Give the backbone structure.
Amino acid sequence: MFRKDVSDSSINKLPGNVEIFVPVSWQLVGYFIVGIVLSCLIFLSLASYTRVEIASGSIVPAAGISLIVPGRSGVIASLPVEEGQEVKSGAYLALIRAEEDSASIETPAVRVESAIAAQDSQLFAQEIATEEAVGAQLRQFAAQHAGLVEEVKHLQSQIAIQQNLVSSAHRELDRIRPVAARGFISVRDMQQREEALLVRQQGLSQLAQALAAKRASMLENERSAAQAASQGRAQKASVAAARAGVAQQAANAASSRSYVLRAPLAGRVTALTANVGQSVTSQSPLMTILPSGSELRAELEVSSSAIGFVKPGQEVRIAIDAFPYQRFGSIRGKVLTVAASPISRQSETGVNLSAYPVTVSLHQRAVPAYGRREPLISGMTLTARIITEERTLLAWLFEPLLAVQKR
């Protein structure tokens, strides 16, 4: 039975070898699949995956901001500055009155100031009286000195005349001595002439004594005038010192009632919350001063779970909340510093949170918006994406296997 079938098949068998051919369409599909696999491998090996940490923060000046806070509680009596106003270092910012003035109630501070004012008035009157008394004494000494000068001049004139008379009597006596020796003039006449000479000499001596006395009086007058002037200066200095002490007391009393807040540095007034008549305390900031020309930076708060991969020099993408990144894009930055210890703060729900401050330098100072460049302003809030790691997608896919191997 089987032999007949075999013989029949051998009779009908065609000569040649049998080969199996794959259709052309299936070849193309295979090539396509291989190409896709190779493309995927190339893409995975070349494309990069970035690991980012998201943190929130705000724009701050590099030099920091100066917070203006009252030294003690009081009421704002004067506020000459406005929001956005540029001020110089030491500029007058506000006057704080430490206590309310009352027309019907005399406060202790008012009584102290009244007593100080009365004391100053008394000292001022004493100063005027001292000046007048010293002035009167000096005028009296000046008048006495002028009188003594005239008397000295008069005595000098009399002495000159008397000296001439004495000289004349000497010459007359010398002239008649030879005549009297020959007996032509009586002895009595000679005695009278000699007595006249003695009288004139005595008068000259008296005038000289009077001149010396007047000169001594002049010296005494000058010494008295100088002493009076010195005493007057001493009294005036004493009164001036007393008035200076009273003025200091008045300043202290005034400062206890009011004091002035001044700008610690040159800059621009921002976050002005104060108004005239507003009650303030030592814990209520009135305004802040942004330093002039200070570079702007981003101050981030990175959570403790993300801080481990944040390092200085890493690239940062910053989205300003005031300019949504979907429309205006983001700005670039670089991590400058990373705090070594966290700071604590309370959330809106009262939960204590800890975060690490991270400072980021900005590559841009403005955001392009509607054909203009809007400058960044201190205080703007932001969301930052810190690029902590960059690797290929292929390495990212095999990361779990590598992690298991490292274990």
User: Anything to note?
Assistant: DSSP finds seven helices and 17 strands in the chain. The radius of gyration is 57 Å.
